[in-house]
């Protein structure tokens, strides 16, 4: 097996003062990367903040013989993020890897959720990832190399009660990956998504501590490493937890075509079983495939070549 190494490479890991981000930062450094350990150092709901969490992880990396710097940027602040990226560039020259991992929770049923709690969660997960990615994107394009990971969640991909804000933000990151994958691939920028499950402070009330012994951040980090090496895949949603690794995928069914006189709500409703039948479903590599499918049908209908 070819070892995955990051010697000479520079990685930014957001939210790396604890949990999954800390584990990602330690492993990237152990495999040779110089690591920017970013963390705002707040509580699970995003309140408060201190550099001490990020500093402790950077110190741990340095004590083990690696290279690291701590940065307390709030990922939602373009000024903070610009300062973090500029500081890293001045010290190490470039950014090869960005792990968008920082996140918070403000769970409530949709009825009880304030718009402020919705916006704050979308701001940290979606706009935080956008802000950090934007700050490294041009540099990666110029260098002709980049590896970027979004951190999604089963809560977004499939839904979880009480997490409308978090689920919406986490699925938005899949959309962001899909587009950046298309825009980045000719510059050798590969964008992937991790959907983790691990025992951290974020899940300690949900996962029993005994199960936590297997559901380690380190088991998820193994998946992360596979997403950011030189031979990384592209546009993959890797689900990882407890040593299990799987891919989450979105498929489109062949569906049905109804003649003009049957293009009514009632006829579509009557055809739903056929429309949702998974037989022959396909994974599309870009949105244009869906447009072309329908356009192709319309063109064939009128005999247009
Ligand atoms: P965690 O709370 O231990 O770590 C998140 C870190 O992000 C914290 O250290 C926090 O200070 C930092 N952070 C929060 N807001 C920030 C901001 N604005 N700027 C900079 N740093 C900020 O939780 P975790 O379980 O390690 O979660 C890591 C990521 O994985 C999150 O995006 C989370 O949504 C996602 N995730 C985790 C699980 C799981 O099972 N633990 C499941 C699905 C998704």
TrEMBL record:
Domain of life per record: Bacteria
Record's keyword annotation contains Oxidoreductase: yes
Pfam annotation, one family: adh_short
Domain (Ketoreductase) ranges: 9-197
SMART domains: PKS_KR (SM00822)
SUPFAM superfamilies on file: NAD(P)-binding Rossmann-fold domains
InterPro entries attached to this UniProt entry: KR_dom, NAD(P)-bd_dom_sf, Peroxisomal_Beta-Oxidation, Sc_DH/Rdtase_CS, SDR_fam
GO molecular function: oxidoreductase activity
Residue ranges that the Swiss-Prot or TrEMBL entry lists as coiled coil: none
Keyword annotations: Oxidoreductase
Family note: Belongs to the short-chain dehydrogenases/reductases (SDR) family.
The name this protein goes by in its record: SDR family NAD(P)-dependent oxidoreductase
Organism this protein belongs to: Alkalicaulis satelles
Upper taxonomic lineage: Bacteria, Pseudomonadati, Pseudomonadota, Alphaproteobacteria, Maricaulales
């Amino acid at each position: 097996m070819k070892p995955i190494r990051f010697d000479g490479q520079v990685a930014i890991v957001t939210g790396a003062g604890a949990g999954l981000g800390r584990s990602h930062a330690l492993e990237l450094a152990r495999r040779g990367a110089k690591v920017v350990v970013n963390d705002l150092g707040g509580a699970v709901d995003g309140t408060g903040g201190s550099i001490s969490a990020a500093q402790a992880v950077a110190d741990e990396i340095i004590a083990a013989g690696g290279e690291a710097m701590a940065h307390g940027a709030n990922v939602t602040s373009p000024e903070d993020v610009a300062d973090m990226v500029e500081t890293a560039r001045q010290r190490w020259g470039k950014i090869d890897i960005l792990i968008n991992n920082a996140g918070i929770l403000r769970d409530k049923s949709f009825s009880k959720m304030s718009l402020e709690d919705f916006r704050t969660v979308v701001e940290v997960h979606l706009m935080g990832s956008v802000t950090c990615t934007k700050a490294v994107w041009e540099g990666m394009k110029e260098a002709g190399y980049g590896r970027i990971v979004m951190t999604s969640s089963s809560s977004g991909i499939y839904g979880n009660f009480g997490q409308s804000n978090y689920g919406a933000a986490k699925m938005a990151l899949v959309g962001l990956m899909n587009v950046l994958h298309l825009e980045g691939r000719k510059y050798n920028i590969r964008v992937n998504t991790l959907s983790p499950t691990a025992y951290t402070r974020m899940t300690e009330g949900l996962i029993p501590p005994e199960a936590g012994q297997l559901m380690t951040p380190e088991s998820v980090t193994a998946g992360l490493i596979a997403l950011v090496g030189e031979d990384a895949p592209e546009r993959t949603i890797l689900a990882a937890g407890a040593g299990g690794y799987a891919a989450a995928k979105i498929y489109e069914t062949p569906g049905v075509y109804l003649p003009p006189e049957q293009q009514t709500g009632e006829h579509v409703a009557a055809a739903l079983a056929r429309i949702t039948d998974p037989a022959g479903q396909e994974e599309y590599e870009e949105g244009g495939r869906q447009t072309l499918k329908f356009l192709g049908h319309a063109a064939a209908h009128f005999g247009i070549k």
